[in-house]
Amino acid sequence: MDEKLISKKDLLNLEQISYGTLYRWKRQGLIPENWFIHKATDIGQATFFPEEKILARIDRIKELKNELSVDQMQELFSANVESFKIPMKDFKELEMVGKMSLTAFTAVFPEKDLLDFNDVFGMYVVDNLMKQSGIYLEDAKQVLRLLLRYLSAEETKDYQLLLLRKLGVPMTVLVRGDEGILLEDNTEVIACANLGEFEEALKDQLIA
Predict the structure, then answer these.
(1) 47 pLDDT band (50/70/90 cuts)?
(2) Interior/surface letters 62-91, b for 16+ CB within 10 angstroms, e for the rest
(3) 61 in the same domain as 95
(4) 45, 115, 158, 206: which one has the fewest Cβ atoms less than 10 Å from its Cβ?
(5) In this prediction, what percent of the chain has a pLDDT beyond 90?
(6) What total number of domains does the chain contain?
């Protein structure tokens, strides 16, 4: 998921905020640590940010800072993932995912009428994989089964999800962090997703 980046210098000039303010918001947990991207440039090391996300977040902080406490903003920007609940019928009305993703989920979990964050996250990942990689309905079901089984037991989403196919047989694998994986011959990577990045993108949509 390639994103347009903005340099720290350009960000401070554009938003008319100071270096100290930016890093205070970082310490307070209002701006995620992983949005601070350090890259080598012609003049040395520089800090960049995902442009769309950081601009939206700073504008939101400016809007709310006189109305909410830091603790309240932290709770808001966390998207309340632990307590998040939404009825399936209400989620459908949001149109956050396509019909095929909803079909895959209801086929795997037909009795689930009240969704939590992980349910929505699973559908969000599947929906993006369908759009980006053209995975099929049966592939989506397999991804959902693995994701929901894993998400119920793990606190972190620092994983890469790989959808593989060998001799026509699909396989779904989770790889922790940036660890590499060695594949057998004739194994094709059908789709790949950074779960941490998808989590941040979904949270941004939920608090927009």
Answers:
(1) very high
(2) eeeeeeeeeeebeeebebeeeebebebeeb
(3) no
(4) 45
(5) 36
(6) 2
